[in-house]
Specification:
This protein is α/β, with parallel strands linked by helices and about 200 residues long. It has helices spanning about 10-20, 25-35, 40-55, 90-100, 125-135, 150-165, 190-195; strands at about 60, 65, 80-90, 105-110, 140-145, 170, 200. Helix 1 (about 10-20) crosses helix 2. The protein is elongated. It binds zinc ion (ZN). The site of zinc ion has 8 residues, from loops.
Length: about 200
């Protein structure tokens, strides 16, 4: 609902802020008035940061992680072991796993999980590109680090079946992660246990 006491530009800003996750009407108003009062440069720095994220960040050509060039920082790093690919659902999972410091290999971001009820089929994900990577490069292990829930398990099973005859060792994170848990919210100790205890799929 539009508040007639607010000018249109301010109302527009509040309406946009309200669309953000975790921002309710009151917070949106508080942020909008803060930006209104802030120095021009400070407020515009936020606008520029938003624009930069949308214009400069794109998927890595190899692994679909967030990148600001052709390849993401991880794929471009010659010290990373290209023979181990850790498969995650989304960039946020990659960030959580990377924070453990235990991954020496590279990643592949699926950009979601298989969920037929939500209309997400294997072709909507980057699975074909993953299979292609395994064929083209000397990949020794694929670590399936999808979430321990129905969608994550379905996705992991599908990938396992596709790579069955590839000669690549396929492992799945151990169940140190409680069923239904999400990798993005798991703490370091849980992820470490899940990684160290990974088993052949
Ligand atoms: Zn990459």
């Amino acid at each position: 609902m539009t508040d007639v006491t607010l000018t249109a530009p301010l109302q527009r800003l509040i309406d946009e802020l309200k669309k953000l996750p975790g921002i309710g009407a009151r917070s949106a108003e508080r942020i909008a008035f803060h930006l209104l009062k802030a120095q021009q440069a400070e407020a515009l720095a936020l606008a520029d940061a938003v624009r930069d994220v949308k214009e400069k960040i794109r998927p890595c050509r190899r692994c679909y992680n967030l990148a600001d060039g052709e390849l993401c920082n991880i794929c471009a790093d010659p010290r990373r072991d290209q023979s181990q690919i850790v498969v995650v659902e989304q960039p946020k999972d990659l960030i959580s796993l990377e924070a453990t410091g235990l991954i020496t290999g590279v990643y592949h971001v699926l950009m979601g999980h298989i969920a037929p009820l939500e209309g997400v089929e294997p072709d909507d994900l980057t699975i074909a590109a993953l299979v292609e990577r395994c064929r083209a490069a000397d990949v020794k292990e694929v670590v399936l680090a999808t979430n321990p829930n129905v969608e994550g398990d379905t996705t992991a099973l599908h990938i396992t079946s596709l790579l069955q005859d590839s000669g690549v060792k396929i492992t799945r994170l151990a169940r140190g992660l409680a069923p239904g848990a999400q990798i993005e919210y798991a703490n370091r100790a849980m992820l470490e246990a899940a990684l160290r205890g990974r088993q052949e799929a």
